[in-house]
């Protein structure tokens, strides 16, 4: 029989919300490291060095075809083993380390594609005009190319952050107690009695965050348009 | 002032420039004519180093460049003395008309902002866009954008301005305003090297015509020489196609 | 120091591969159900039909705004009870526990993919200019025929890369079916790894199997895209 307790659902929300800090910590750390990795990969993909280019593209293919959960476990089991070869003991490291590493790899991959395509979306003529009026390569890039590429990239980046938030929920599988991990604990503690209410409370939290981010993205797109037609690259 | 010696350039197996040599004096308004594929645009782009020529020499005032071994400093130096007007205008999309011109002055030539603003406004006034300082390229018509491109070039006070088919991307009714602007600055003594199909400009404003075909210079001379007394057969054929009312006697 | 158990890796690779049919079955069924339904939904979204459009938007917003794993848990919690009621009402003697969890997988992944593909088709249809429909009408085609012969083929070219993405994502997401105790790629390899704690080898094998399947799928899509694009290149 389906006994749905709405008040139970409401009670769960304040129990879960405090754990959002772990969720967001993971998100921000992943953003930071992933973006650095993404830049490096994008530079390699656009560069002249054939070996680096092939490596970067091979990395992208590998990441595109790997489920997040497989990557997570691969890092969780594999990294300590790899480190032990180099005589590092990673057994005491917090779970956050593994979660951030795994998701930084996959997010870095996504970022590298966004950076690459938004850079290519800016016409070559802009660079030529910039150097013809005397700007150095660096100035041309910083003042002319980068602002235009950023406008193209931003909506895609925000979308990817949203995806990252959702993928991050899988961190509970290696025991991280973020908002998803806490929900699982609550369900287990109650012997699955009111699992549905807890899950719906969790969904509500994620859904709210998504709606806020999506609306912000929409407003940002409108503001950046300045009457120009928009190019979506990803 | 500008002397070009034996420029060669091939794209893969296709030789596009097969030994181009000519010279430009200060105050010249030189027009390069020729059929499509003759290498006119490639030549211009090589002179501004957007393409790398395979061999040849460029003597610009006191700068002597061997195109096989160009150094970054030489490229920078020549770009400081020259300006380029593009077929697709290539205005900086994220800057207003005024800011487009300020870029080269403030960042490129390190002129203080107040002074640069005065120069930029004067340039925009000269091309007839005094009321469009704060407009973005997307808010301007093609003709207006190209005029900003010309203003951007003249504001730099370069020794020579290269024009790469400046009106080819424009609707017919907008071509006139751009040509008028070019005529105006030509009359003021600007040294110009222009690649164009606009015969009216070549006949009325230029003082030197260079006819190119298949990667070489076929004939060179004053407009009068080229248009009324062409010497080469290929020149005649080209002119016949473009100016049917002329007939030629050799 | 540990070295990889290569013998185990060799065997486990095939164990993992044996889970591929289930993975592909879920993927194919989800696609077969989602494509027509999401196409229909995308038309609703484009036309802006009053109530249906809002319902679609809420549905899509929910599916895209919550993690897939939560959706799987939700269905796994809710569906059995609904199915149980249905079976009782039809006097069936089938027990809830006999229902193969793969049916729940079909439902979750279909619902998920419908939401995603609706947006894919909506943006693809938008890229085809309205003038194409007008031209079709002017030569006497019905709206239905116009869509079938002119508009959809052109929209398909734009949609194809996104379809390829959605398919590979679908394949990767089936790895979450371990939560439904479905013996697909990931679960089989994990189970095989348990006795000897050969987790690293198992996950490397899992990774290789997914890499193999996804590469094949991408290759297939690229070839199809090339074939469809033929009409575009002719004018170049």
From TrEMBL, chain C:
Annotated Gene Ontology cellular component terms: ATP-binding cassette (ABC) transporter complex
ABC transmembrane type-1 domain segment(s): 20-218
GO function terms (MF aspect): transmembrane transporter activity
Alphabetical list of PROSITE patterns matching this protein: ABC_TM1
Name of the protein in its database record: L-cystine transport system permease protein TcyL
Keyword Cell membrane: yes
Transmembrane segments: 12-41, 62-82, 102-121, 202-221
Keywords: Amino-acid transport, Cell membrane, Membrane, Transmembrane, Transmembrane helix, Transport
Source species of the chain: bioreactor metagenome
Membrane topology recorded in Swiss-Prot or TrEMBL: Multi-pass membrane protein
GO biological process: amino acid transport
Location of this chain's protein in the cell: Cell membrane
InterPro entries: AA_ABC_transptr_permease_3TM, ArtM/GltK/GlnP/TcyL/YhdX-like, MetI-like, MetI-like_sf
NCBIfam families for the chain: HEQRo_perm_3TM
Pfam family, one: BPD_transp_1
């Amino acid at each position: 029989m389906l006994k749905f307790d709405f008040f139970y659902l409401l009670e769960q929300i304040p129990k879960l919300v405090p754990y959002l800090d772990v969720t967001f910590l993971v998100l921000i750390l992943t953003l930071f490291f992933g973006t650095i990795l993404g830049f490096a990969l994008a530079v390699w993909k656009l560069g002249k060095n054939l070996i680096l280019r092939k490596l970067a593209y091979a990395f992208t293919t590998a990441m595109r075809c790997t489920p997040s959960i497989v990557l997570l476990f691969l890092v969780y089991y594999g990294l300590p083993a790899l480190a032990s070869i180099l005589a590092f003991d990673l057994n005491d490291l917090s779970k956050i380390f593994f979660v951030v590493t795994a998701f930084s790899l996959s997010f870095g991959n996504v970022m590298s594609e966004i950076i690459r395509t938004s850079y290519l979306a800016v016409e070559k003529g802009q660079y030529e005009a910039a150097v013809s009026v005397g700007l150095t390569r660096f100035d041309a890039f910083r003042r002319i190319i980068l602002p235009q590429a950023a406008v193209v990239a931003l909506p895609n980046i925000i979308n990817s952050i949203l995806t990252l938030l959702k993928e991050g929920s899988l961190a509970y599988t290696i025991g991280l107690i973020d908002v998803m991990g806490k929900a699982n604990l609550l369900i287990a503690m109650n012997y699955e009695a009111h699992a549905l209410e807890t899950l719906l409370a969790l969904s509500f939290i994620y859904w709210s965050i998504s709606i806020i981010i999506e609306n912000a993205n929409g407003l940002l797109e409108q503001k950046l348009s300045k009457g120009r037609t928009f190019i979506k690259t990803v | 002032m500008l002397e070009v010696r034996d420029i060669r350039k091939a794209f893969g197996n296709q030789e596009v420039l097969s030994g181009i040599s000519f010279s430009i004096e200060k105050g010249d308004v030189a027009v390069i004519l020729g059929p499509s594929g003759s290498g006119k645009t490639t030549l211009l782009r090589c002179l501004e180093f957007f393409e790398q020529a395979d061999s040849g020499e460029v003597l610009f005032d006191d700068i002597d460049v061997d195109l096989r071994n160009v150094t970054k400093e030489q490229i920078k130096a020549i770009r400081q003395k020259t300006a380029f007007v593009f077929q697709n205008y290539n205005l900086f999309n994220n800057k207003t008309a005024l800011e487009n011109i300020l870029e080269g002055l403030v960042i490129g030539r390190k002129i203080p902002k107040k002074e640069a603003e005065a120069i930029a406004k004067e340039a925009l006034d000269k091309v007839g866009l005094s009321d469009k300082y704060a407009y973005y390229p997307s808010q301007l018509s093609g003709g207006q954008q190209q005029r900003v491109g010309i203003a951007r070039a003249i504001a730099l006070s370069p020794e020579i301005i290269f024009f790469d088919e400046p009106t080819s991307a424009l609707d017919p009714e907008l071509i006139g305003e751009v040509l008028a602007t070019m005529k105006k600055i030509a009359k003021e003594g600007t040294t110009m090297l222009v690649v164009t199909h606009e015969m009216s400009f070549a006949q009325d404003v230029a003082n030197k015509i260079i006819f190119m075909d298949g990667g070489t210079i076929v004939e060179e001379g004053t407009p009068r020489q080229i248009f009324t007394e062409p010497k080469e057969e290929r020149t005649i054929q080209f002119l016949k196609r473009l100016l049917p009312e002329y007939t030629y006697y050799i | 120091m540990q070295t990889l158990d290569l013998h185990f890796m060799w065997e486990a690779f095939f164990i993992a591969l044996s889970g591929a049919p289930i993975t592909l079955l879920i993927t194919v069924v989800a696609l077969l159900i989602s494509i027509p339904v999401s196409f229909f939904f995308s038309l609703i979204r484009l036309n802006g039909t009053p109530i249906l459009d809002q319902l679609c938007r809420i549905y899509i917003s929910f599916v895209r705004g919550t993690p897939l794993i939560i959706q799987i848990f939700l269905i796994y919690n809710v569906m059995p009870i609904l199915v149980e009621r249905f079976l009782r009402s039809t006097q069936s003697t089938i027990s809830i526990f006999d229902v193969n969890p793969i049916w729940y997988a079909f439902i979750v992944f279909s619902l998920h993919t419908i939401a995603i593909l609706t947006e894919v088709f909506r943006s693809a249809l938008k890229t085809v200019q309205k003038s194409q429909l007008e031209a079709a009408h002017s030569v006497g085609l019905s709206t239905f025929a116009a869509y079938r012969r002119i508009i959809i083929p052109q929209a398909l070219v734009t949609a194809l890369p996104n379809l390829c993405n959605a398919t590979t994502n679908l394949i990767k997401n089936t790895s979450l079916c371990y939560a439904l105790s479905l013996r697909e790629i990931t679960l089989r390899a994990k189970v095989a790894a348990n006795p000897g704690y050969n987790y690293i080898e198992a996950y490397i094998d899992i990774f290789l199997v997914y890499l193999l399947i996804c590469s094949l799928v991408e290759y297939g899509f690229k070839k199809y895209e090339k074939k469809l694009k033929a009409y575009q290149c002719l004018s170049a």
